[in-house]
Amino acid sequence: MNSEPTRKVLIVEDEASIRKALIDLVANAGYTVVSAEDGDAGLTLAEDPSIDIVLLDLMLPIRDGIEVCQKIRERRPELYVIMLTAKGAEDDKVAGLQSGADDYITKPFGASELLARLESVGRRLAMGEETNGPIEMDGVRFHLARCIAVRGEDEINLTAKEAAILKLLHQHRDRAVTRAELLEKVWSAPATLETRTVDMTIANLRQKIESNPADPKIVVTVKGVGYAWTEIY
C-alpha cells in the first residue's frame, strides 16, 4: 500500500461483526479508520474533510446507503464512495451507481479484493492531487482534481469515477480508450469482466456534462472500440 499520505477511511455498516472485521482489516493495512452503524451517523462523519474514502453498506437503518450517498454527493462531491451490498442484482448495482457511488463490491468479498480497491483509490487520489489546471471543452470547464465541472453559471458535481474517466480520456485524447482499459484503470477490475458498469457510468456522466446527451460532443462513442475525448480524436 502507498502509505504517503495515510488515507482516512469511513466504514458505515450496521452489522457489528462485519463492521469490526472491516475495521480490523482496513486499520491493519495502514489506513486511519472511523466507523458508523447507521446512515445518519455515517453522513455526519462523511462531512469531515479529512475523510478520503467511504465504505458504505447499502442496507442501513435510519437512512439507507442510497440516500446517504446522494447526500454525500451534494455536500462532498469529491469524496470516493464504495458501496457494499449483499445484493447481486443488476438493479441494485445500477441504483448504487446512479446515487453517486464510484464503485461497488458485492458481499461476500475477499479481503485481498477490498484492499486492492482501496490501494487503487489511493493511487488515483494521489494522481488527482497532482492534476494541473482546468480543462475546457464544448463550453464546460473541468476541475477534475476537485471533481467539479462548470457550464455557464452552473456548477456540476462529478463522482470520483466520472472525474477519473474524463482524466483518462483526456490523457489519451489522440485515440479511443477501450472499455477494457476503463475497467482496468478506473475500476481496477479485470478487463474480461462482463459488466455494463462502464456504459452506465458514462451515460450518467453525459447527462451531467453534455449540452445534448443524445449527441455528445465531449465523450463520444467509437463503435466497436470504446470511448474517446472528442477534442482531437
Q: Please estimate the helix content.
A: 25-40%
Total strands: the figure is 12
| CATH topology title of the largest domain | Rossmann fold
- Name the CATH superfamily classification of the largest domain: Response regulator
Q: Which CATH class of the largest domain is shown?
A: Alpha Beta
Radius of gyration over all CA atoms, rounded = 17 Å
Query: What ranges have pLDDT less than 50 throughout 5 or more consecutive residues?
Result: none
Summarize the structure.
With 233 residues, the chain is an alpha/beta fold. Helices cover 40% and strands 21% of the residues.
Structure description:
With 233 residues, the chain is an alpha/beta fold. The protein has 2 domains: 121 residues, Rossmann fold; 98 residues, Arc Repressor Mutant, subunit A (Orthogonal Bundle). It contains 8 helices and 12 strands. The strands form 3 sheets. Strands 2-1-3-4-5 form a 5-stranded parallel sheet, sandwiched between helices. A 4-stranded antiparallel sheet has the order 6-7-8-9, with no helix packed on it. Strand 6 and strand 7 form a beta hairpin. Helix 2 packs parallel to helix 3. The chain starts with 7 loop residues before the first strand and ends with a strand.
Record keyword descriptors for this entry.
2 domains; about 230 residues; alpha/beta; Arc Repressor Mutant, subunit A; 5-stranded parallel beta sheet; 4-stranded antiparallel beta sheet; Rossmann fold
Topology:
Layout (H helix, E strand, L loop, with lengths): L7 E5 L3 H13 L3 E5 L2 H8 L6 E5 L7 H11 L4 E6 L4 H9 L4 E4 L4 H19 L5 E3 L2 E4 L4 E4 L2 E4 L2 H12 L5 E2 H8 L10 H13 L9 E4 L3 E4 L4
Parallel strand pairs: 1-2, 1-3, 3-4, 4-5
Antiparallel strand pairs: 6-7, 7-8, 8-9, 10-12, 11-12
